[in-house]
Specification:
- There is one protein chain.
- The chain is of the alpha+beta class.
- The protein has one domain: HIT-like (HIT family, subunit A), CATH 3.30.428.10.
- Helix content is 30%, strand content 17%.
- Strands 1-2-3-5-4 form a five-stranded antiparallel β-sheet, with helices on one face.
- Strand 1 and strand 2 form a beta hairpin.
- The longest helix has 22 residues.
- The termini are far apart.
- The relative contact order is 0.17.
- The model has no long low-confidence stretch (mean pLDDT 96).
- Bound molecules: guanosine-5'-monophosphate and zinc ion (ZN).
Length: 132
């Protein structure tokens, strides 16, 4: 059984701040920033590719609840919602989870992509390959 399934079964303790029939939301043990919380579906699904529409919507609904809880209690005004799916994307626990990551303007996290001129020829090719 994976570590998050053990947390969901209360075999491993967690700091759970919100829970319902579908999700358990607990503080990330590493706290990348203060209030860093994980939204975890109670059903074991590996990653975004395996989420069904009910779990997906329940995860996002819970993220809104948790974001507003952090806003009220910690005065958080800025948040990243982040999911790593697959090891090359940085997933280390193979049970889907959405990171709720408060941002305070004084951390080392940087998600900004490098901006460059759009390549419309490549965009056109890519688009056609995706819709055909
Ligand atoms: P990933 O890299 O898979 O997106 O994120 C896994 C996250 O799970 C990490 O941020 C890590 O700190 C957290 N984590 C790993 N083991 C535990 C645990 O036993 N308890 C809690 N609360 N968080 C954990
Ligand atoms: Zn699991």
């Amino acid at each position: 059984m994976c570590v998050f399934c053990k947390i969901i079964n209360n075999e491993i303790p967690s700091y759970t701040i919100y829970e319902n029939d579908y999700v358990k939301c607990f503080l990330d043990i590493s706290q990348a920033t203060k209030g860093h919380t994980l939204i975890v579906p109670k059903k074991h699904v590996e990653n975004v590719f395996a989420l069904d529409s009910i779990e997906a919507s329940e995860v996002m609904k819970a993220a809104v609840v948790v974001a507003n809880l952090l806003k009220t209690k910690l005065k958080v005004e800025n948040i990243n919602l982040l999911n790593n799916s697959g090891s090359l994307a940085g997933q280390t626990v193979m049970h889907f989870h959405l990171h709720v990551l408060p941002r305070y303007g004084c951390d080392e996290i940087d998600f900004h992509q490098v901006e460059h001129e759009p390549n419309f020829v490549e965009l056109d090719k890519l688009y056609k390959s995706l819709i055909n």
